[in-house]
Design brief:
Length: 167
């Protein structure tokens, strides 16, 4: 749990933004197959917002009913997973927050579906992006259109589209 009083975030393209006023609940990762598919990833990092007040400050997520009890919110423009909505409350995708490093998972759920190699990822060789010499020309020409990790008055900027920035 983080001690910040206000937490903001949103999708990759900026069409959907949110703010949580008050404390966040327990952060977790879920390994169940449904979460793997919903996030297109090895697991889903989520944090409960039951103790705070969630407001959609720009747009609102589209929703997919993934079971008889759960809906999952996502950006209809860019596909970013945003919510897990169940009868006991809403959880938000940790990676969608502007400061995800402040929200550390405290428990793992759905471990019966955990992909066995996730326990060994920390042992893989590591390389910083700029150390990939074969990709330097590509990386130096790359201009991103991702929304910045902070609230903006309008997005994309009125200057004719998303302002590019280096990834």
């Amino acid at each position: 749990m983080t001690s910040l009083v206000s937490h903001s975030g949103g999708c990759q393209c900026g069409a959907v933004r949110f703010r949580v006023e008050g404390p966040l609940g327990q952060a977790s990762i879920c390994h169940c197959r449904m979460c793997q598919k919903a996030f297109g990833a090895f697991y889903a990092p989520l944090v409960s917002v039951r103790a705070g007040t969630l407001a959609w400050t720009r747009g609102e997520p589209a929703r997919f009913r993934s079971s008889n009890h759960v809906s999952r919110g996502f950006c209809r423009a860019c596909g970013t997973p945003l919510t897990y909505e169940a009868p006991d409350g809403v959880a938000l995708a940790i990676g969608a927050f502007d400061h995800p490093e402040a929200i550390a998972p405290a428990i793992q759920y759905g471990v019966e579906a955990k992909l066995s190699y996730t326990d060994t990822l920390h042992a893989l060789p590591v390389r910083r992006t700029e150390e990939d010499a074969a990709a330097l020309a590509f990386l130096n020409s790359l201009v991103g259109f991702q929304h910045p990790d902070h609230d903006t008055q309008a997005w994309p900027p009125e200057t004719g589209g998303a302002q590019g920035h280096r990834e």
